[in-house]
């Protein structure tokens, strides 16, 4: 159904009521070329734009002459959104301003995570550097105070050993940040109890595959024991702990490397599952080496050698940084998909009905120029 019954001069002049139930469609301040509706659906390949009525949930097709710039705006906004879920046919985002966008077509590739998460990891990096600089600044002030209160020889010594002083000051800053970061503990609810997880515990917390390899879980090391979590609990705990393990942020090239891993995976879920399988294998191998060391130690403590009990290569803080970053991204994407999948099913059904109506409406009076533009968009997307 077309919004309005006649051609209008501008989108702002369009009727703002649903032609199915006559209730208000609402307005938005995000899509400048189409400031109508609180949920917009668009298909860039076919050149269609709908307003989804908030009351009856019917899809109202916009006039064809008003769509193109608005569709381009919708596409840009969709690509810039931070909350997204998609199926093979349809995607849904929620913008901060409250507008929802429904994108029809093949889902965007995982490389879009580069800009979704790049800002977050860059922000974390800046905060870590700021804390480091603050601690280093305190160390520098302490050194300056010692110099001011010291003799002239101490002042001259600063020039003689300036590089060493700078190096030691910077080292003090990084040590101070590490101490600050390690002192913080994360409180989690596990089996109805509050447990605390310190940074040191992240070296022994890792993903594990579940029985049969059909799922994954988390082997959690916390304040007084070890616990294996699965399902929603595993998702919640892993997301929080990985955010802590990745608390120092990452540079752009590291984020790009992590995104490539997601791109190469068949799906986000497959990436998590494969990572869990690899982590479980590494953890089992580490546990076996630890048992062998303990047997050797019991036989002869002097010849047993040394063994680092915290060097579990599967631990969150021991994982390769690109893998750890990619895993945090994947868990975030997966949690959004689970949260929104209940909304996508009715959206798919509503879109199919609206697409059938739109196909009939658009074939009635479509100028050749419009057909040419649609073909151009299709060729661009295929290329």
Mean pLDDT score: 76
End-to-end Cα distance = 32 Å
Overall form: elongated
Structural class: alpha+beta
- What is the rounded Rg? 28 Å
Q: What is the N-to-C order of secondary-structure elements (H for helix, E for strand)?
A: EEEHEEEHHHEEEEEHHHHH
The profile of the biggest β sheet is: 6 strands, mixed
Portion of residues in beta strands equals 5-15%
Helix share of residues?
Answer: 40-55%
According to DSSP, the number of beta strands is 11
Order of adjacent strands in the largest pleated sheet? 3-2-1-6-5-4
- By DSSP (H or I, 4+ residues per run), the number of helices equals 9
Q: Uncertain spans, ≥5 residues at pLDDT below 50?
A: 4-13, 142-159
Salient structural properties:
six-stranded mixed beta sheet; 11 strands; alpha+beta; 383 residues
